Amino acid sequence: MLAYLFRRILYAIPILIGVNLITFALFFMVNTPNDMARAHLGNKHVTQVAINRWKAQHGYDKPLFYNAKVNGLQKFTDTLFFQKSIKLFSFDFGVSDSGRDIGHDISQRMWPSLALAIPTLIIGILVNITFAMMMAFFRASYLDVSGVILCVTMISISALFYIIGGQYLVGKSLKLVPISGYDTGIHAWKFVILPVIIGVISGIGSGSRWYRTIFLEELHKDYVRTARAKGLSEGKVLFKHVLKNAMIPILTGIVVVLPMLFLGSLIMESFFGIPGLGSYTIDAIQQQDFAIVRSMVFLGTILYIIGLILTDVSYTLVDPRVRFA
After folding, report:
1. Would you say residue 257 lies in a domain?
2. Backbone angles phi, psi at 126, to 5 degrees
3. Are 81 and 226 in a shared domain?
4. Cβ–Cβ under 8 Å, residues 40 and 28
5. Taking the alpha carbons of 117, 118, 123, 124 in that order, is the dihedral positive or negative?
6. Can you give the residue range of the structural domain that contains 10?
7. Please, which pLDDT band fits residue 152 given cuts at 50, 70 and 90?
8. 76-80, 88-92, 253-257, 275-279: lowest mean pLDDT where?
9. What percentage of the chain has pLDDT greater than the value 70?
């Protein structure tokens, strides 16, 4: 186990370096520091003196990879690549273009994102699997057909409809919970309960339909026919055998959304005014604060790799055939 984890971590290092290089190229070679300065200062009537002053104030006045004006190791450390990119590996996110400490902002904003994302993920998985198993249990019946039609209809509806409709119905008409905002401590529940419900409902269509496909595929395999031949009821076959063997694709699908547990939901947090990392990223994009965007891209890459490793490890818990080599 330890040797496998060590190898996976070693494999992850080149991936992180590659993503870091691509991100650096996009932010500093395609979109040059001069372009960043003009975006912040305004594209019209901006002098080169003002551009140079802004670059010096924000640390963008250094060479990209090699600084010939200094001596020794500083030729490589006193560069944009080292200051803005390499330091991310030590989780030194630096300062945003607006002067804020990015690391401090992340540590503060991660908790509202987790308060919204974790209940949405857990409740959503339980609801989707339950609904999908019900359709698989009554497959080819009116209940199954009606469920598939409902799922396709829900997929076809934009997520914005659920958000705006939920805000209007629950928040404005019924006045059960606030439409937007956030509070710390125990009072946070009244601000996240509506986004969680909307997040679960908006994901039922795609999630349940996907899980139904997985369960139906398992139902046509040989071990299911063997279990039925032994006299097991359809309920036991579905809940005891099919569900367990379907866990590998289910876990694989969950890993895709794991980074969003930390990074937050971009649209949901923005509409509900939740000060999480999702709204933090949206605000940075709108303000063209590339330091924050770079940090969030790097953080998302790390979280996705961690999720892949945890998924591979969890395979051994649901499938005894999986072994670490």
Report:
1. yes
2. -65, -45
3. no
4. no
5. positive
6. 2-89
7. very high
8. 253-257
9. 95
